[in-house]
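Final report, Chapter 2: Outcomes

The project's central promise was a pipeline that accepts a single protein chain and returns its three-dimensional structure in a standardized token representation, suitable for archiving and comparison. That pipeline is now operational. To close this chapter, we reproduce one record exactly as it appears in the project archive, with the input sequence first and the structure output second.
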Amino acid sequence: MRLNRICFISDSGGIENAVPVLLKAGVKWIQYREKNRTRREMFHDARKLREITKEFDACFIVNDYADIALAVGADGVHLGQDDLPIKEARKIMGSKIIGVSTHNIAEAAEAEKEGADYIGFGSIFPTATKEDVILQGIDALREVKQSVKIPVIAIGGINADNVKPVFETGCYGVAVSSGLMKGNKGNIKENAEKFLSRIAKGL
């Protein structure tokens, strides 16, 4: 499986500036998440991201839409609790990666049982990128990690300064958006290098 330790979650606004900078810095997993564009616009965005990620041999995952993921040749799809069931998505995606967002042990266990390749779990810390999130915290992340055998990706308010206790739970990786984008454009590369350096040094 092509998952990496850091997943950058990008909307359409990150395609031209943030994604190329992060890939050059060494981030090897990009996930496209967009809520404010049409399906046709999302298809064109995803196709651009697939082209960029291929140049860097990086994993590319599309949120929510298995048809778009398949159409652009993405490595996989990431499903929410209200999206297509895993078994139906598997009919579309075949052996490609399927990830699922989860918020408790029951959802995590169900995702593993249904054949998910990995789960996202959060929110670990408060985050401004999604509304109405339920804070789970480090202890819940540790419990979920111990309850499933597939990789667990932590999400929600994670940055280079608070990532150490997240990885100490044994989770496989972290999904990050604002934690890599904070500051101006010039800080994006610096943020990525800080993350990657901490992982390389065992945090």
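Archive annotation: The chain has nine helices and eight strands.
This record, like all others produced under the grant, will remain available to the consortium after the project formally closes.
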